Every structure is written in structure tokens, then in C-alpha cells.
Amino acid sequence: MQTIEQALDKLEKSKFRSGFHLTKKEREYLEEKGMETIRRHTEEFVRIKLSPAHPLNDGKQTPMHGHPAFKGMHATACCCRGCLEKWYKIPQGKELTESQQAKIVNLILAWIERQRE
């Protein structure tokens, strides 16, 4: 089991995943709303877009822009069930547990925190 820091370091080595960065508008939204609100939004996005065994439009359900969490989901390979399986060995076709959802949320928020620095 890898730590959040290990996962983020591994993701930075991927040309595709390391190409994601928060825009000025997304940073402003983050500062305006605060991390607690962003956490609640991220928890909801993960619950709706990733948690079901067969998410609606899987592979295309996460927008690329519009919210710091969406950008973080792509940057951390938590954007669809295929990426979760490839990067984290979380099998498709089975609903995510609350523990898995929490770990995903924490990873996305850690990426967002790194972007704030």
C-alpha cells in the first residue's frame, strides 16, 4: 500500500498526469470557497462519478475543467474506473467502499494542496 506522497511522486513521473495544473480561475475559486467546501464537493463528485460499480458514461464522466476537484481527479488518475484499476488496482464492476472513497478524496485534496504552494 503506497502513501499519498508516494502516489503523488509516481504521478509526477507520468507525462500526461504531470501536465495538469490549476488555472488562475480555479485557484481563485479554491481561495474563495476554502478547502472544507472543496472537500465536500470532492466527496460528492467521487461518490457520484466513481463509486458506482458501473458509473454513467464511465471514462467520460469527469470534466477536464471547471472545478479544482475535476482537474485533481485527472491529475491523480481518479477520473474513471479504468484509471483507478490501472493505477491503483481497484477492480471495475464493484462499488467503491467508503474507505476507498475516502482515500481517493484524500489523494485528490493532497494534489490540490500541492497546487496551492
Largest sheet: none
Write down the overall mean pLDDT: 95
The H-and-E topology, N to C, reads as HHHHHH
Overall number of domains: 1
Uncertain runs: none
The counted number of beta strands is 0
- The radius of gyration computed from the alpha-carbon positions, rounded to a whole number of angstroms, is 13 Å
Written description of the protein model:
By secondary structure, this protein is mainly α. It has one domain. The protein is 59% helix and 0% strand. It has helices spanning 4-12, 24-33, 35-49, 68-75, 81-88, 98-116. Helix 1 (4-12) packs across helix 6 and helix 3 crosses helix 6 (98-116). It is globular and about 35 Å long.
Summarize the structure.
This protein is mainly alpha-helical.
Record keyword descriptors for this entry.
single chain; 117 residues; mainly alpha; 6 helices
Describe how the helices and strands are arranged.
Blueprint: H1 4-12, H2 24-33, H3 35-49, H4 68-75, H5 81-88, H6 98-116
Helix pairs in contact: 1-6, 3-6, 4-6
